[in-house]
Amino acid sequence: GGWGAYRSQQDIRNFWVQHNGLDQSITASLADLDPEDESLVRLMSYWSTGSDVQAKFYIVENGGHDWPGLRYDWWNPLYVLARYQMGFGRTRDIDSSKIITDFFVEVARRGRAEPR
Fold first, then answer.
1. Which of 66, 69, 72, 73 is nearest to 88 (CA)?
2. Which residues of 47-69 are buried (b: 16+ CB within 10 A; e: fewer)?
3. Which of 7, 45, 71, 102 could form a disulfide with 11 if both were Cys (CB 3.0 to 4.6 A apart)?
4. What residues have CB less than 8 Å from 116, skipping those under 6 apart?
5. Looking at the DSSP assignment, which residues form a beta bridge with residue 34?
6. What pLDDT does residue 12 have?
7. Quick count: other Cβ atoms within 10 Å of Cβ 107?
């Protein structure tokens, strides 16, 4: 399970896959663009034939409590402490901000999403 009142990532993933009726999946390891960050990223993609609905889940292994791809000012002590204490910006193989932005741009391009 998750921590406290929060559901586990597996519970959340299963909810969206079931909610959207997705019955196909593939998991791929993404390129390790920065071996020095000591993290690896897997992309779990789900879809259903006959539908353009899909779900993607990024699993960061050894990423800490992270916002993958975070850029920060190295000279700012607050960011440096956050990096060493919690791993913020540790994973540099993907850019979370770009992934999230691309998702919303695609939703806007398609038009308003209808609830299922």
1. 66
2. beeeeeeebebbbbeebbebbbb
3. 7
4. 19, 20, 21
5. none
6. 94
7. 11
Q: What is the dihedral sign for C-alpha 49, 52, 53, 55?
A: positive
**Six-digit token string for 33:** 């663009």
The candidate with the shortest Cα–Cα distance to 65, out of 81, 80, 85, is 85
Listed by start position, the domains of the chain span 9-110
| Alpha carbons 4 and 53: distance in angstroms, whole number | 31
The mean per-residue pLDDT over the stretch 107-111 comes to 84
Q: What mean pLDDT comes out for the span 12-35?
A: 95
Which one-letter amino acid corresponds to residue 21? G
AA identity, residue 50: G
DSSP string, 44-99: EEEE-TT---EEEEEEEET--S--TT----TT-HHHHHHHHHH-TT---SS-HHHH
Per-residue pLDDT band at 89 (split at 50, 70, 90): low
Q: Which two tokens stand for residue 78?
A: 């607050």
